[in-house]
Amino acid sequence: MTELLKAGRKNIQKAAAVIKGGGIAAFPTETVYGLGADGLNPEACARIFEIKGRPRFDPLILHECSAARARKLFSSIPPAAEKLMRKFWPGPLTLVLPKARTVPEIVTAGLKTVAVRVPANRHALALIKAAGRPIAAPSANRFGALSPTTAAHVRKQLGGGPDIILDGGRTAIGVESTILTFSGGRPVLLRPGGLPLEEIEKLAGPARPAARGKKPLAPGCLKKHYAPAAKLRLIAPGAGVKPSAKAAYLAFSTVPPGKWAAVKVLSRSGDLREAAAALFGALHSLEASGAAVIYAEKVPPHGLGRAIMDRLRRAAA
Ligand code: AMP
Ligand code: MG
């Protein structure tokens, strides 16, 4: 059952406890409502995709309560990004920079960069502070639906999904954050949003758009960044492919017989949430085995299985 609670002191503590325990809390930010989970807990993050009904893994934005804590999520920060953080955080600016090791791969959908921001909403800041960890949160709507700007929107779309919805009233800005990355020290606009580009350019110099025309970089554009070096072949579970020391094997729930270059099992109990949380790490480690081909078992095509299959199909393409 989802609890809809006013965003007061006590309820924010309650929501923080939910997040620390691996649960899901929807909360207001200054842009839109977010669907929040412990950003360092892969299984909790997998639940976000499950609740949204997202048929694929898009990278999530990590929310922190101060620039000092946000910096720890990056492994390097260009000087211009540093200037922007000082000026615009807290605020509707998301920075995409090389990730620290502590950031789980499901958060970045396998990318080596992570998106981070500090929201300018006192309830959001209090929640993150009380949780004591970054909160991973996409907009709290069902996949393909409009972003929610009130707690009632969240309940209507996702009622029954999150453990808690914190009601902090209507969001002040109502559109998503501006997403910016850097290339060769120069800013690159990934998505226009709540912070005008002109403001950014005054400090960081001219930004180039990531894609041609006015369209923001479609999440689909990101996918080609992640293709394993090895050939990936999709197979039916237990299809009985001939074992080889030159091939790696990605099993859904059962260890395959025979000798392989490397084997990973996504979930021994056949749990799709556990499998989703393990997917990117497993693919990277099989790739690191140096195998020329990776056999990947298909997973059941429902719930998170759809997103897992989407990723495997892209890797196999
Ligand atoms: P939202 O669902 O509104 O939180 O949007 C998050 C968006 O941030 C995604 O759709 C991505 O396009 C973008 N994003 C997050 N992480 C990255 C990244 N590492 N590289 C590029 N874009 C990112
Ligand atoms: Mg969204």
Please tell me about this protein's structure:
The chain has 11 helices and 15 strands. Residues 213-226 have low confidence and may be disordered. 32% of the residues lie in helices and 21% in strands. The protein is α/β, with parallel strands linked by helices. Strands 1-8-2-3-7-4-6-5-9-10-11 form an 11-stranded mixed β-sheet, sandwiched between helices. It starts with a strand and ends with a helix. It has helices spanning 9-20, 42-52, 67-71, 79-88, 105-108, 122-131, 151-158, 197-204, 219-222, 272-288, 304-316, and strands spanning 3-6, 25-27, 34-38, 61-63, 93-98, 113-117, 135-136, 164-167, 178-183, 186-191, 208-209, 231-235, 247-251, 262-265, 293-297. Adenosine monophosphate is lined by residues 58-59, 61, 96, 108, 111, 113-115, 138-139, 176, 179, 190, 219, 222. Residues 138-139, 147 line the site of magnesium ion.
Radius of gyration, whole Å? 20 Å
* Total helical segments: 11
> N-to-C terminal Cα separation, in Å?
40 Å
The backbone outline, from C-alpha atoms, is: globular
Please tally the β strands and state the result: 15
Mean pLDDT: 92
Helix content: 25-40%
- Secondary-structure-based class equals alpha/beta
Bound molecules: adenosine monophosphate, magnesium ion
The succession of helices and strands, N to C, reads EHEEHEHHEHEHEHEEEHEHEEEHEH
Characterize the largest beta sheet: strand count, sense, and whether it forms a barrel: 11 strands, mixed
Spatial strand order of the main sheet: 1-8-2-3-7-4-6-5-9-10-11
Low-confidence runs of at least 5 consecutive residues: 213-226
Proportion in β-strands: 15-25%
